[in-house]
Amino acid sequence: MITECTQSDFNFKGLEKREVVAKFDGGTITSDAGALLLREVDSATAIVRQFSECFEDFRDPDLIEHSVSELVGQRVYGLALGYEDLNDHDELRKDPLLATLAGKIDPTGQHRERERDRGKPLAGKSTLNRLELTPPDANRKSRYKKIVINENAVERFFVNVFLQAFPEPPERILLDFDATDDPLHGNQEGRFFHGYYRNYCYLPLYVFCGEQLICARLRSSNIDAAAGSVEELERIVPQVREKWPNVEIVIRADSGFARDAIMAWCEENNVTYILGLAKNERLKREIVGQLEAAKKECEETGHAARRYKDFRYQTRKSWTRERRVLGKAEHLSKGANPRFVVTSIPSETLDAESLYEEYCARGDMENRIKEQQLDLFADRTSTSLMRGNQTRLWFSSVAYTLLQALRRPGLEGTEFEHAQCGTIRLKLLKIGAQVRVSIRRVLISMASGYPYVHLFAEVYKKLRSLKPVPTWLALTLHYQRTIAFRSSTWNLKSTVSLD
């Protein structure tokens, strides 16, 4: 017979003459009080609200207790706070602080319609999964899942949030493209074995501008790394130029993106590119003299040596025209290390060494991808359908965007200005507090021993000074999404190899 544990007191090792006793009787306590700063960010940027407008709700308004905006907010804030799985929300649904963040008018849930739901202001996992698992053809006659996400609207959303982050149009923006692996451990749709990563995985495509995410496209891994890049450029560039007609747009990527289709599109549409170029024997012969000079210097000084060479180059079959290529002839203690870059930037505008350093700066994008995968659970793509996994990737991307919106103005000039999302969560959001809800207010009494009180106050002051997204812009975005819903085919884009 299994005995039921009813222990309420926990007696630990004493402190000299004092007993050390613990009980679960502290009342309504939260460990996430710092997330109020995220709510302040969202009140100015409307990131969660704008994302929730990318869903079409076919439910009967008279029969629901959780609006799409509340469901989206619950999921996004949960990810930002480190709760990666929907199962977590069966307990989190009782949290009045998370309910406050999500915008629930009744943060204690005492006025829920059904008695069994009272005390649980938020949705459970079975309700939240409708955001991810609703089929694209759902309508008002569907039985259960009736909240449809529109991919066209989501794609415009990420670019719009990026554009809103600039009070004035910049002269130049750098868009970094990269692909990464998303390991799979089930039999998900679109699952393939990738020889380079030696695993079954997806191959998502990311586009960042600095630390700001612009695109997160989930793809099967049986494709070229650059597949779909032209389609993303055709979508992103016109949307950027619609608001910033005079901005210079530069794209950077590694050698997996040095495809003629991408370079030709950029040349025809006045977009500059700086792309890595895979080395071959023809390219290495171009810099033989520079490699010899670098080797001689390295042997004399004992330090790495570099030389650069500018030249024109065209492949025998895959390129339609000759292009500028620069070679880095580097010699290390371990031997020669030649590298190549192809670009549309004229030599009189930027010399070879400066251009190569500009290309190398793209490496920071890999940190952003790692940050999203490790800290915001972008790799939790475990639903059976690729559409549902794409939606999960987008939720993770929105959580990243929200934290980035906190990092950009709120932490600027502080010791955490360049901190990763996991560090921001640990140092700034994970604050213990007692939550008390009355008729007039929600009172959060935060831990007196919190070590970053002055930082919290500084960030709070900065966030309170942010100007909210203008009403006219919000209406414009809502109109754009309405058009996107009407024109959508409700299918994930097919990806075609550019090889």
In short:
The chain is of the alpha+beta class. It contains 18 helices and 19 strands. Among the domains are: 33-151 and 415-487, no CATH class; 280-337, no CATH class.
Task: Explain what this protein looks like in three dimensions.
The chain has 499 residues and is α+β, with helices and mostly antiparallel strands. Among the domains are: 33-151 and 415-487, no CATH class; 280-337, no CATH class. It contains 18 helices and 19 strands. The strands form 5 sheets. Strands 6, 10, 11, 12, 13, 14, 15, 16 and 17 form a 9-stranded mixed sheet that branches. The chain has a 3-stranded antiparallel sheet with strand order 3-18-19, covered by helices on one side.
Primary descriptors:
499 residues; alpha+beta; nine-stranded mixed β-sheet; 18 helices; disordered C terminus
Characterize the largest beta sheet: strand count, sense, and whether it forms a barrel. 9 strands, mixed
The poorly predicted ranges are: 474-479, 481-499
**Category by helix and strand content:** alpha+beta
Shape: globular
Gyration radius, in Å: 26 Å
Q: What portion of the residues fall into strands of 2 or more residues?
A: 15-25%
